[in-house]
Amino acid sequence: MRSSARHKRFKLKSEINVVPYIDVMLVLLIIFMVTTPMLNSNVDVNLPQANAKSLQDKKEPVIVSVDHNGQLYLTLGTEKKQPIDAQTMQAKVGAFVKANPEVSVLVAGDRDGKYDGVYQVLAQLQQAGVAKVGLMSAPESGSKK
Predict the structure, then answer these.
(1) Which of 2, 18, 19, 122 is the most buried (most CB within 10 A)?
(2) How does this chain sit within the bilayer (predicted)?
(3) Is residue 143 part of a domain?
């Protein structure tokens, strides 16, 4: 009888020990909490010049320019480049594209500017209903052989 009492006292458990998993989860949580703020830093990008051919378009394009300070400039068709704020640009370009759906919309970003300015313009143009947007670049100044 003693052997059966001892056997009941040391019965094996069929449960998973989750303590090591909790430790690993907490370490991963701390790592992600430390690294996440580092992912949102702005980086200056010097875009390279391209050897691409220019597009031939029948209509004058709408050009939204972003300078290195983040100031926006708008060129509608044959008009001169004029400074503009983001909301007015969004309204004007949206109305112009609705009136002329075949017109090209181009974004020109300053080489020394932050990418955030161009990204904000792309998001605002999408909200204005512009389906296709092109990025402008300067032709290569020197020929490499």
Answers:
(1) 122
(2) Single-pass membrane protein
(3) no
Question: Are 66 and 115 in a shared domain?
Answer: yes
Total domains present in the chain: 2
Confidence (pLDDT) at 56: 62
Token pair for 118: 């161009």
Residue 75: CB atoms within 10 Å: 17
Neighbour tally for 74: CB within 10 Å: 20
Q: Which residues contact 69 (CB under 8 A, 6 or more apart)?
A: 113
Angle, nearest 10°, between helix axes 86-99 and 115-127?
A: 50
Q: Do 67 and 118 have their domain in common?
A: yes
Ramachandran bin of 129, using left for φ above 0, alpha for ψ from -120 to 50, beta for the remaining angles:
left
44 within a domain of the structure (yes/no): no
Q: pLDDT of 61-74, one tens digit each?
A: 888 888 888 888 88
**What pLDDT score was predicted for residue 144?**
46
Q: Using the 8-state DSSP alphabet, how is residue 49 labeled?
A: P
